[in-house]
């Protein structure tokens, strides 16, 4: 948990939320003191952007079929800024008018759909729907939300392919789709966007990691618990300027950990499994590395300082590999196929896609663990 919370993104998110809360608070206080009441009346009822928000939120309420905590019971009437979970603030380019800038329905336990009318909420900077029971697909109309900065849809029941509409959101910085039922491939464009955080773990995404990961600015990439297969392409080095956490556990990735991971000089947390070959020294000498979890792989060799991470003060988990000198390794039976067909990680390069093993494990599927109990805490949905 700590590692993720130390990241700048949630802080920024919190700050924005705080600002939103403050602006709401200020308005309530202002209203209570009768101060700027006329202005407030004007701004709450008569601007076209709030009217569009009213249409959108009423349309949404109509497709919310369960609301056990009565979050939406006050979603009545045109004063949308008073609705539970709806946050208004001054419009960016027109400070005199109020607009709906945030939706925070985290842990509301709502069940229903997202209607096309959400595309009318063009002033939204934040959507937080963590831990609800929303289902169906993400409407294409959200591509209309040109100010959207944070989109948290985690821990719902959304289905369908990766919601490509998010790729056209110019301001999007934080994308959290974890714990849903999205399926199919991740589009390469996802890794080309100027995102700070990409959480797509615990879905049904499949296919391989795109071969060319270029132009990414993400500091946190969590794709764990999906069924990708293939290998990790050397172009992961294109994340060098930004990447701090890379969690690949239980993604059916096989092959080598590319030595290019050694270029990710900001990397603090690295966790992956089912890879084989050697643990490259370049990774173990990374200056910021503080936690290197590589349990449940098939590593049979460690280079240089990797053999003694304690000496660098790095927290590590090397259990359940095939490392001859280390305790708590896999059994001989599990390791033999790997040891009999050693991989030269400097020769065999992941070309992306199916990679060197054509997407299949280098050993019989029987020896590949179906799952791993090692779940890093930052995989769990947050309460941002
Ligand atoms: C929600 O409202 C219904 C009907 O007014 C009421 O029976 C129920 O107790 C309320 N639930 C909560 C959690 O407040
Ligand atoms: C997109 O936003 C504009 C206002 O900027 C609005 O007129 C239009 O109806 C919206 N489109 C959709 C599909 O919601
Ligand atoms: C591993 O990922 C699959 C999806 O590919 C999921 O069904 C399974 O529950 C995950 N295992 C664990 C231990 O989380
Ligand atoms: C690891 O390094 C530390 C300090 O540099 C040393 O005390 C320890 O003996 C080394 N352990 C092994 C297994 O080489
Ligand atoms: C290191 O990271 C792994 C995976 O994220 C996590 O499970 C583990 O608790 C972390 N260890 C420490 C000491 O922070």
Kindly report how far apart the N and C termini lie: 13 Å
Instruction: Determine the CATH topology of the largest domain.
Output: Leucine-rich repeat, LRR (right-handed beta-alpha superhelix)
CATH architecture of the largest domain: Alpha-Beta Horseshoe
How much of the polypeptide forms β-strand, as a percent range?
15-25%
CATH class of the largest domain: Alpha Beta
Provide the list of bound ligands, each named once.
Answer: 2-acetamido-2-deoxy-beta-D-glucopyranose
Query: How many discrete structural domains?
Result: 2
Oligomer state of the chains in this structure: single chain
Strand order across the biggest sheet? 2-3-5-7-9-11-13-14-15-17-19
What is the assigned CATH homologous superfamily of the largest domain? Ribonuclease Inhibitor
Name the shape in a single word.
Answer: elongated
Tally of separate helices: 6
Write the H/E string, N to C: HHHHEEEEEEEEEEEEEEEEHEEEH
Low-confidence stretches: 1-44, 353-384
**Global Rg:** 24 Å
Overall residue-averaged pLDDT value: 78
Helix content: 10-25%
Q: How would a textbook summarize the main sheet?
A: 11 strands, mixed
């Amino acid at each position: 948990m700590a590692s993720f919370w130390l990241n700048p993104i949630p802080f920024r998110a919190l700050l924005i939320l705080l600002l939103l809360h403050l602006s709401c608070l200020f308005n309530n206080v202002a209203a209570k003191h009768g101060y700027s009441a006329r202005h407030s009346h004007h701004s709450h009822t008569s601007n076209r952007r709030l009217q569009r928000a009213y249409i959108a939120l009423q349309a949404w309420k109509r497709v919310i079929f369960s609301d056990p905590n009565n979050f939406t019971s006050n979603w009545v009437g045109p004063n949308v800024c008073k609705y539970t979970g709806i946050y208004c603030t001054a419009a960016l380019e027109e400070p005199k008018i109020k607009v709906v800038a945030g939706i925070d329905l985290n842990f509301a336990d709502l069940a229903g759909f997202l209607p096309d009318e959400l595309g009318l909420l063009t002033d939204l900077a934040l959507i937080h729907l963590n831990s609800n029971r929303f289902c169906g697909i993400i409407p294409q109309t959200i591509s209309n939300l040109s100010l959207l900065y944070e989109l948290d849809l985690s821990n719902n029941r959304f289905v369908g392919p990766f919601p490509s509409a998010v790729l056209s959101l110019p301001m999007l910085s934080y994308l959290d789709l974890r714990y849903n039922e999205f399926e199919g491939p991740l589009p390469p464009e996802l890794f080309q966007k100027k995102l700070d955080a990409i959480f797509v773990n615990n879905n049904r995404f499949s296919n391989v990691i795109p071969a060319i990961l270029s132009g990414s600015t993400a500091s946190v990439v969590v794709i764990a618990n999906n069924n990708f297969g293939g290998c990790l392409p050397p172009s992961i080095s294109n994340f060098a300027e930004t990447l701090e956490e890379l969690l690949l556990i239980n993604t059916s990735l096989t092959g080598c950990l590319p030595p290019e991971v050694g270029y990710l000089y900001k990397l603090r947390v690295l966790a992956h499994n089912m890879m084989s070959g050697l643990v490259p020294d370049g990774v173990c000498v990374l200056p910021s590395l503080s936690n290197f979890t590589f349990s449940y792989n098939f590593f049979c060799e460690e280079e240089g300082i990797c053999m003694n991470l304690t000496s660098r003060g790095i927290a590590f988990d090397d259990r359940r590999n095939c490392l001859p000198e280390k305790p708590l390794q896999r059994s001989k039976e599990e390791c033999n196929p790997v040891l009999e067909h050693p991989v030269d990680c400097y020769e065999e390069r992941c070309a992306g896609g199916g990679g060197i093993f054509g997407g299949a494990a280098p050993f019989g599927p029987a020896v590949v663990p179906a799952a791993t109990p090692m779940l890093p805490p930052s995989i769990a949905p947050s309460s941002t």
